[in-house]
Predict the structure.
Amino acid sequence: VVYRNAWMTVREDEVIRADGSTGIYGVVNKPDFALVLPLDRGGYHLVEQYRYPVRGRFWEFPQGSWASADAGGPLPPGDAAELARRELREETGLHAEHLRHLGRIPVAYGYSSQGCEIFVATGLTQGPPDREPSEADMRSRWVGADELDNLVRTGRLCDAVSLAALTLWERLARRG
Amino acid sequence: VVYRNAWMTVREDEVIRADGSTGIYGVVNKPDFALVLPLDRGGYHLVEQYRYPVRGRFWEFPQGSWASADAGGPLPPGDAAELARRELREETGLHAEHLRHLGRIPVAYGYSSQGCEIFVATGLTQGPPDREPSEADMRSRWVGADELDNLVRTGRLCDAVSLAALTLWERLARRG
């Protein structure tokens, strides 16, 4: 481990490649997180917040992780669903009656082992949000399908994992 | 800068949050990369390789960066297109007559400033691949739309940026 903070560790491994040559491989370890597509009236609930590394505010699907950088690897199934429900409730105030698991995708597997568990939430009931201090600037709102397309087209919803989650969901919806 | 190797730097910033509290923010800097959707006969050309951080082989769209971790921030437009052509040619042997830019998306903006420039390539001509030593295990092949859906559904194409690129392309194709 060559670097560690409360949210990530960076590890440097010595590796032997398929051709027998050796080298180093830097791997960023962060705990898995959950992302929720909250489906409602033919549209989606989104959140918007400031993302420091890219210096801007963007729309995305509710998402988050348990607060521990040491917990690497896949989350236990029940744990991932509980995390999804918690992030949805904290960030939007929505309670989901039904949660459906769409899959786990690696976020940046060229240099990280982190994965994201993707869920679709339906049967939504509105309550008050309960955001963490670091999410004080967050807002949430419902958008219809056309407005979602517009946010994607104009780059205001550009988060790779949110866009990837749409691909998974739209393929599943097409299959019925 | 708290860590550096040939492909990434990790920076630790002191930040002041919207509520006035202070803290640290770890940011992974890697150079932008380019990803290409090579469209052909109603399907796509894909590559498959071993991804060390997740210990497995997966299908994805051809992608890569110039070899320099110091070059952060967006690539100049012509540079991004040249990189896309090079990665496509090296990884698949395909030469693209036409290249269309779909957008730049942040890969993991919760902790990284890295972006990916996404292109669609058409008018393809097959030549020999010219892979880097670290890509010696790579293979490429054409898949039809149904087989692509099957690779996505079964998790054998799960790269977040490849899935995100599909969302951008399918929305554009729908608009015509």
Summary: The radius of gyration of chain B is 17 Å. Chain B touches chain A through 60 residues (CB under 8 Å).
